Amino acid sequence: VSHDTTPAPRQVDTSQMKVSDEVAIQITEMNKWFGTFHVLRDINLTVYNGERIVICGPSGSGKSTLIRCINRLEEHQAGQIVVDGIELTSDLKNIDKIRSEVGMVFQHFNLFPHLTILENCTLAPLWVRKTPKKEAEATAMHFLEKVKIPEQAHKYPGQLSGGQQQRVAIARSLCMKPRIMLFDEPTSALDPEMIKEVLDTMIELAEEGMTMLCVTHEMGFARQVANRVIFMDQGQIVEQNEPEEFFNNPQSDRTKLFLSQIL
Ligand code: ADP
Ligand code: MG
């Protein structure tokens, strides 16, 4: 786990990043258990379109579980999660619909090793969206250009650096044209010199207005890009604020302790 405070790699103009008053995600009194272990407690969270939210907190506090609940990789047992107006229930149609609107990028890139970069990017559009092959490939090349590795399209994941693979993972998500992107420690498995290229890609997404929830220890990124920082501990949202206030004037003792350990 990287606890460094790498500054965001380039100047970010957040004044251009507009937050809408339309709700993207509404979580109400949500609770989740793993067996008897109460992992998420009374989570209430409203995310507006265009927000860049950074979620931080100690290991085991429930950050991954929370964002995995948003695209139903995990199931919650009480309360409500509504994404783009669709409630997440056991209704499979709704789950498919939400998964097609919510992209997710993991710490370990989860690319298919036996498929080329291009094939990794066209797989879901071809098989889930039934997009014609030519169109899926054109879209994939568009997003590979966006993450600045179009020349790698015909290589296999194992031939790329970690930073390049993570950018492919982001491009692959974008090929499904999501409205919301979830990131779970996208730079934690990367060497320091590769963190910058992935953060740059995320900054560009933010500049284009993507709604983003990012679990990350990159506090430089949080300061410069986030409009809101959320601190979780023991399955609860303990505190949230705009970055300036969050870092300079933390309210709870748990937040102060956490910040004193990582900054
Ligand atoms: P974080 O991402 O903040 O480190 P997680 O959401 O991964 O935390 O985990 C929160 C807690 O839930 C931890 O105590 C973890 O051990 C537990 N946990 C996570 N996934 C499972 C699972 N599939 N089954 C049982 N316990 C789990
Ligand atoms: Mg985690």
Automatic annotation (TrEMBL):
Cited CDD domains: ABC_HisP_GlnQ
UniProt domain ABC transporter: residue ranges: 25-259
UniProt keyword annotations, A-Z: ATP-binding, Nucleotide-binding, Transport
Entry superkingdom: Bacteria
Keyword Cell membrane: no
InterPro entries: AAA+_ATPase, ABC_ATPase_HisP-typ, ABC_transporter-like_ATP-bd, ABC_transporter-like_CS, MetN_ABC_transporter-like, P-loop_NTPase
Molecular function via GO: ABC-type amino acid transporter activity; ATP binding; ATP hydrolysis activity
Family: Belongs to the ABC transporter superfamily.
Name of this protein: Amino acid ABC transporter ATP-binding protein
